Amino acid sequence: MECSAKLFVKGDPEKLFQCLVPEDTKFDRSGFNLKKMKDGLEFDVNAKDAVALRATLNSISQLLIVFEGAKRP
Q: Among 2, 13, 18, 51, which one is most buried in terms of CB atoms within 10 A?
């Protein structure tokens, strides 16, 4: 069963994109594309199964947690 999800993160799209684009976006059973939007960043996630989808969403969440932590004074 193929799965997909779109995730939108509000914030500075340029800084978010610069920080996240060097990360791996393709995995064995899943991957994601980044797209800069007017007021944030959109993640388009595709996976071959639900477990791979969950793992990819968890990876994205961890990247966002690190980004948020780096912004704090």
A: 13
User: How does pLDDT run across 9-51, given as a tens digit for each residue?
Assistant: 998 888 888 888 877 778 889 999 999 999 999 999 999 999 9
Task: Calculate ∠ Cα 38-43-39, nearest 5°.
Answer: 15
Q: What is the pTM assigned to this prediction? A: 0.85
Residue in this structure with the two tokens 């064995």, named with its chain if needed:
28
Nearest to 57 by CA among 27, 21, 19: 27
Rounded to whole angstroms, how far apart are CA atoms 16 and 23?
A: 12
Interatomic CA distance for residues 20 and 41, integer angstroms = 10
User: What is the number of residues in the chain?
Assistant: 73
